[in-house]
Amino acid sequence: MKVGVLALQGDFGAHATCLRSLGADPVEVRTPADLADVEALVLPGGESTTMSMLLESAALFDPIAARVAGGMPTLGTCAGMILLGREILDGRADQRCLAAIDISVRRNAFGRQIDSFEADLTLSDLPGGPFRAIFIRAPFVDRVGEAVEVLATVDSHPVLCRQGRVTVAAFHPELSDDLRFHDHFLRGI
Questions:
Q1: 0.70 exceeded by the pTM?
Q2: Has 184 been annotated as catalytic?
Q3: Catalytic site residue 18?
Q4: Out of 78, 97, 161, 182, which one is annotated catalytic?
Q5: Is 161 designated active site?
Q6: Which residues constitute the domain of residue 168?
């Protein structure tokens, strides 16, 4: 199974390693042609304003939006969550988002780099006990639309949400040795 990993900026290599170890064929997506052959897409963590600008300059913004709107399974982590949301709070005025999931996302909501933390999340869809989530300059969800499922919270703030075939996480599952999160995503494709 070919799974695209947006490879313009951010921690795309770690996602590719996780996917490969689970038997998927990760494809680094840098152009619209790269996107054409994938069955699913991962938007990694990184710097969301930079990623937004790079999506525009690589002519990937509209093709990704169309594929996601067409039902392509998509996972966004940290900056990927910000890009997939309907509204970005505290972003740059010219920063676009894909509006693939009906949430409003607040950038760096848990604080700066020094405020990074880990938390055990109990996820009903993920058997085997709590998942140790790593939060780095993490966003959280301020507003959730009616069709959005909140799958996990930290301090009453949604940090894992799903709407249809789009899943977003405020944390970095690719930095964990626990492959259950990526495995669950692959099983849903």
A1: yes
A2: no
A3: no
A4: 78
A5: no
A6: 2-187
